[in-house]
Amino acid sequence: MSAGDAQLFEDTFTVTDYDQSKYDRVARITGTSTDNQTELKLDINIELFPCHVGETLQVVLATSLSLDGNRDGDGSDAAEGKGWRDVRNAGGPGGEESTLADMYDYVCHGKIYKFEDGSDGQTM
């Protein structure tokens, strides 16, 4: 499996709304894809990654941060589950194995809690 196989979704979004009313260091941003077919809502840490309405962001959803495309912790042993820091430090002496995260300025690692499928079955 290649890194491309691990990427489920990739698009560029323009930030259309910015709401920091609930938390001090977190904002919920809303963005629209360049083809106007996808809307994204994402909570971001604005101290680590400040952004503003009108900025464009490239977003990738992937099953793994490993460049070889292997899923993080897809083995049968529960101890095999690795977080993004574990994947990064799995390299040879001194760690520092390259990951998909190295290609981006801001990385979220975890679960997607809500998404909606489009009526055509091609969009989410």
Concise synopsis of the structure shown:
By secondary structure, the chain is mostly beta strands. The chain contains 2 helices and 4 strands.
User: Mind describing the biggest β-sheet?
Assistant: 4 strands, antiparallel
Q: Would you identify the regions where 5 or more consecutive residues have pLDDT less than 50?
A: 74-79
Main sheet strand line-up: 3-2-1-4
Number of helices: 2
Beta-strand percent range: 25-35%
At the first level of CATH, what is the class?
Answer: Mainly Beta
Q: By CATH's scheme, which homologous superfamily applies?
A: Nucleic acid-binding proteins
Class from secondary-structure proportions: mainly beta
Helix content percent band: under 10%
Order of helices and strands: HEEEEH
| Number of structurally distinct domains | 1
> Do you know the CATH topology?
OB fold (Dihydrolipoamide Acetyltransferase, E2P)
Number of strands: 4
Mean pLDDT value: 78
N/C terminus separation: 23 Å
Radius of gyration: 16 Å
Oligomer: single chain
Anisotropy-based shape: globular
Q: What CATH architecture would you give? A: Beta Barrel
Key phrases:
124 residues; mainly beta; globular
What can you see in these coordinates?
The structure is a single chain. By secondary structure, the protein is mainly beta. It has a single domain (3-103), classed as OB fold (Dihydrolipoamide Acetyltransferase, E2P) (Beta Barrel). The protein is built from 2 helices and 4 strands; from the N terminus they run αββββα. It has helices spanning 3-6, 84-88, and strands at 7-19, 26-33, 39-45, 56-62. Strand 1 and strand 2 (26-33) form a beta hairpin. The longest helix is centred in the C-terminal third of the chain and has 5 residues, at 84-88.
